[in-house]
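Thread title: Can someone regenerate the structure for this chain?

I was given the following input by a collaborator and told the matching structure tokens would be attached. They weren't. Posting the sequence so someone can regenerate them.
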Amino acid sequence: MIRQLVSALLVLAVLQIAPQTSEAKARRYTVTQRHQILAAKINRMEKAGELTLREARDLRDDNQDVWQKVNRMKARNGGKLSYKNIAEVEKDLNSISNKIHKKALQKRVEDD
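Best answer:
Regenerated them for you:
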């Protein structure tokens, strides 16, 4: 009985000391990874019926426009993005991500 209690207290102490993975390390994706993740999310949501064909197509177009913008920026800068370019592209990708989330939330409200 005492061994079990001591073991349980030891486990709790270790869990409190160990950093939480979500707090300790924020995920950092490259622009390319974010572009691919958003494209996959759009496809997944369309297949699940959370997006109509038109909504998915519009979001894909937005995502493709951002990718073309990235390619133009790289062409001007010798194949690389400046920090300013990255910030601008991240802002555009955040906008697309927000549109996706808004559509998903809107569908949930309509379904209830």
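The helical segments are 2-17, 21-24, 31-47, 53-76, 83-111.
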